[in-house]
User: Which sequence fits this backbone?
């Protein structure tokens, strides 16, 4: 064993400085003398010679200039993911160069146009780490209001007294949403009785929502105690929050993307608003006034005939439920 170690020590300098062909001949002699397996002999000679496998620097195709240019494009695109940025790069480069926001070397520009989405994510990893996972856009007042308004699910209503309303907005945009202003309907449905009030609004506006609350409260035969809405910015804002707090109204909200939490008002959106008004586009003051007149003429009919309980075989005559009777607006 001592002789083998001495032989390794004697050969390691020759092996380390030899060419590829000479290394093969040295290795053949070493294996013949020691009886070692060839792979084991290679490891021994490399270790002793200091020629152990080291991590070699890859010749990088995308250098620091490409990374910096990608960072600029990424910030301009609101820090989207690599797949989306890959599709945006050609248009972003063209637009930013045209407006003087970017001046790229032709080589760098060519590399930007051919870089893959996975490579984009790797090159931007350090930039993402520096923002600590935070989005570029800061949370505004609406997010703070939303956090301060408690969530109420459909199962948490129990048996509330009259006065707690689910509220929602119906857009009369004529099908798919398009640009422009169109009339909205503010729908308020009482949980206990099913009493439904509809208020026509010329546009979607938080101050008009407050006016709708005032109008509905003036027409109700009982006091308004609370409102439960979705997470729409028309409801989750400082003006509505202060109004509810000032009037002593309990303000709650549903869970995001959980329409079942507002099953009562969602049902009235279809059974009352869409059945009366339809799905056409309404815009302008004249359309709003006509819709308000329609709601004023039909509100008592809606209240008396359409405020049936969602439980089959039960209708509500004001506060007292009558079991087992059908007709007169009873649920099927």
Assistant:
């Amino acid at each position: 064993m001592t002789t083998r170690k001495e032989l390794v020590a004697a050969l390691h300098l020759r092996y380390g400085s030899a060419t590829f062909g000479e290394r093969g001949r040295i290795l053949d002699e070493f294996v013949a003398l020691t009886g070692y397996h060839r792979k084991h002999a290679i490891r021994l000679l490399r270790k002793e010679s200091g020629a152990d496998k080291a991590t070699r620097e890859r010749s990088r195709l995308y250098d620091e200039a490409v990374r910096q240019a990608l960072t600029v494009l990424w910030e301009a695109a609101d820090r989207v993911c690599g797949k989306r940025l890959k599709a945006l790069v050609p248009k972003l480069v063209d637009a930013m160069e045209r407006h003087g926001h970017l001046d790229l070397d032709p080589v760098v520009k060519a590399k930007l146009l051919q870089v893959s989405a996975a490579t984009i994510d790797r090159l931007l990893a350090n930039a993402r780490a520096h923002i600590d996972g935070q989005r570029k856009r800061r949370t505004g007042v609406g997010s703070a209001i939303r956090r301060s308004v408690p969530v109420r699910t459909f199962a948490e209503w129990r048996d509330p007294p009259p006065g707690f309303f689910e509220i929602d907005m119906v857009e009369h945009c004529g099908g798919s949403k398009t640009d422009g202003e169109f009339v909205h309907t503010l729908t308020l449905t009482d949980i206990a009785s099913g009493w439904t009030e509809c208020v026509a609004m010329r546009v979607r506006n938080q101050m008009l929502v407050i006016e709708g609350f005032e109008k509905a409260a003036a027409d109700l035969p009982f006091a308004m105690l609370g409102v439960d809405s979705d997470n729409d910015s028309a409801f989750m804002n400082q003006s509505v929050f202060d109004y509810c707090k000032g009037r002593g109204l309990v303000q709650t909200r549903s869970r995001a993307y959980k329409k079942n939490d507002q099953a009562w008002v969602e049902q009235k959106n279809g059974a009352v608003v869409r059945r009366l008004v339809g799905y056409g586009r309404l815009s302008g003051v004249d359309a709003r006034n006509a819709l308000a007149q329609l709601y004023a003429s039909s509100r008592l009919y809606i209240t008396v005939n359409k405020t049936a309980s969602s439980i089959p075989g039960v209708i509500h005559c004001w506060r007292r439920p009558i079991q087992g009777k059908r007709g007169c607006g009873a649920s099927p």
